[in-house]
Write a structure and sequence with these properties.
Number of helices: 8
Structural class: alpha/beta
CATH topology: Rossmann fold
Helix content: 40-55%
Number of strands: 7
Distance between the termini: 16 Å
CATH class: Alpha Beta
Oligomer: single chain
Largest sheet: 5 strands, parallel
Strand order of the largest sheet: 1-7-6-2-3
Strand content: 15-25%
CATH architecture: 3-Layer(aba) Sandwich
Shape: globular
Order of helices and strands: EHHHEHHEEHEHEHE
Amino acid sequence: MPPFQRSESLFMYRGTVRDALLAWKLRGRDAPVRWLLETGRMCIERTLAPGDLLLPVPMPLSRMRRRGQHHAADLARWLAEISGARWDWRILRRQGAQQRQSSLSGGARWRNMRKAFALDATYLDKGLAGVRRLWIVDDIRTTGATLYYAARSLRGLRMPVGVWTLARTHKE
């Protein structure tokens, strides 16, 4: 059984959606992704609600400093603006050093993420007040390893957990 009860992806990762995501991730152009979110507004509003807390998949600090952008956090913030949900990038943390998932095969991705996530207890108490469901947010779902292990790190909270991605690959 997966450590989450619900999985949502707004689009398939191909064609125009793939082009928009690559323009955002590689060239910093967020307008196409914002347009995709606006296009999917009704689905987002049906899925995410004001009592939800969106937790972006954490990015290693070294990569965030180098790139100057945290895509999952930006996505969580935009989703919160649309849905009225809250978001917090501090509760779920990356720990240890992992290779970039995009450079690994499917099996290696699962091994790579096994111990990559932990909760930051400093932010738990006030961050979870009034929350009815947690959502882990990421841009693209390929093998599901990142989302699986991020969700698994939330087990001790005894709250419903969902995973939400802008797009997923067709291999899933």
